[in-house]
Structure prediction request, 691 residues.
Amino acid sequence: MGDLQLDTPAQYVKGVGPARAEQLARLGIRTVEDLLLYFPRRFDLRRQTQPIDTLRGDEPSATVAGEVTEVSEQRYGKRPWFGCMISDETGWLLVKWFHGGYLRGKIREGMHIAVSGKVGTYREHLQMVNPNWQPVWDPDSANLDADELLPVYPAGADLTSGRIAQVIRRVLPDAERLIPEILPGDILQRRDLPGRPRAVAAMHRPEDTEQWDAARRRMAYEECFLMQLGIAMNRIRRVSRPAHALTRTDEIDRRIRARFGFELTGAQNRAVEDIAADVARERPMNRLLQGDVGAGKTVVALYAALLAVANRAQAAIMAPTEILAAQHYRNIQAYLQGSRVRTALLVGGQNPKQRTRLLDGLATGSIDIVVGTHALITEQVRFARLALVVVDEQHKFGVRQRTGIRSKGYAPHYLVMTATPIPRTLAITVFGDLDVSVIDELPPGRGETTTRCVSSDRMDEVLGFVRERLADGQQAYVICPLVQPSPQLQLKAVEEIGAELSDGALKDFTVAVVHGQMPPDRKEQVIAEFRAGRIDALVASVVVEVGMDIPAANVMVVLHAERFGLAQLHQLRGRIGRSEQDATCILVAEPGNPIAQRRLEVLTETHDGFTIAEEDLRIRGPGELFGTRQHGLPELKVADLIEDLDLLRDARRDAFALVRDDPSLSGPHHQTLREEMEKLYADRLDLIAGA
Ligand code: ADP
Ligand code: MG
Prediction:
């Protein structure tokens, strides 16, 4: 076997047989390069170990390492424990973890582990209780002369971190020879980053934490840089398509504003200025309008639509559901009463004749503003002169859906509205192709919303409070997490809870039920009754989360609140507090779940969507929160979307500058960079920015 190359299959690495190769492949590791780029998740400091026979039995802290020669467990009783016996050449030691059931299967006979903790005795034997422990990846070097940084690799189902480390250590001596630099030298210098060959080696085996920090920063930067490069390249390609330039005169501005019965807030005005500046250009606007529910985004979007109409062009407004489309339509009609602007609502279930007339109107330009669901773009809808698309995504972002309207050959200006506060880091990664306007100020004259978090054994009190408010003429939401009864989780279905409340605690009031599985017209009907005040309490699944606007409803009880994400709860809570009246949101969580309780408390403390979103991101990770994978973005392995914000910003600035100078990366210094990009994104480029 000759020298290792980057593309040498992992199986040819010494000590890797077909079985190990297969285990590695399951982790996505196929080549030597994959091995070198498979980085430890963290390092544990391994303390200098001492031979077991040097222990006296009264050490406040000691570290020993050895083979697990026996495991045992006491599963029942007051203080269940999990234990094992560790042996080195000099003796053996009992180790016990109280409530250590989670270790079952993790610590097995034959493994080598190191344990660190207080040493005592039990029936005259040496014993360590509740120590820190970690697997030892190389038993031969277990007896350390000095403390050591121990890499912890993301393990597979059948491959421990230690085994992975063993394989990687075989290829590590070749790292500096094999790994090419891919970033331009001037960037490395400016950002003070180490070269790639050294960084890769140090990622696995740093001399000290400082060297590791530098290596990690370099690799995180590289990751962010490549991602932003992809976004930048796509963006350049897209904005090269022309759009209708929409001009705004003072007269137009005055006339649009006259449509609203109020002054725009400072934040709304800033967003309007951003938009007006964007659409005045002949290249498409691509802007995210972000703001809490009720902050007044729709008003800003309507301003933009009317600007299009004033320029004799059309605007399309798309909502995620029919209920929301209808609501937008109703609102818009109210604002436009007595104007000559022609509007239409396009949803399913309209009769064919009506529909044909609508489609004709759009194709000939006799309709100015159309409101509909996302189906607007997937169907055969033709526009005479479409200048603006507004997508109200609330919390359901869909890059793929955005792709649709562009692929029809239009180059409309494009405005996405979202009520989900997107952490800044995500705004420039997942939504890196969008400019962002934030409405961070509520319209005046809104009441306060108080949030309380209680445990479900106080449900009687909660319902007593609801009764009081209902008797006072207010309306309430009761939110349940699931529609289908789920015996395992013992969650009651919406229907069941509705029945229970209307026969029991709320029997003096009108209670109705609405959930996602109901036919749309039935749903619509219930919501209309609630809006009209004929229903006092609405027991609902999360369907109300998305944009329902009923100002008189000022009480919300969320059952099983621990099952919702924080951002989602924040979203839900935005349904109330939409009038001058004060509102109350009660989060009911199962008792005995202190972690959930603490998590929920964030909501009682703040209404700041960004704080909540960042907390959520911390807890759940970006993938789950936004489905980054669905967005076609490569996963970030090294960079941390919260901690590395500055790095990400730098990388974005550098990547965009580079693409401005060399849009196709064809310069001689950009060859390796280009190759790396293509490898990373393969055929995903189109998806990144929804081009
Ligand atoms: P969002 O779309 O952000 O949820 P909307 O645009 O629907 O918010 O506005 C929520 C409510 O606030 C609507 O009833 C709207 O008429 C009202 N509103 C919006 N902007 C203002 C303002 N500047 N002054 C007073 N009321 C406003
Ligand atoms: Mg809205």
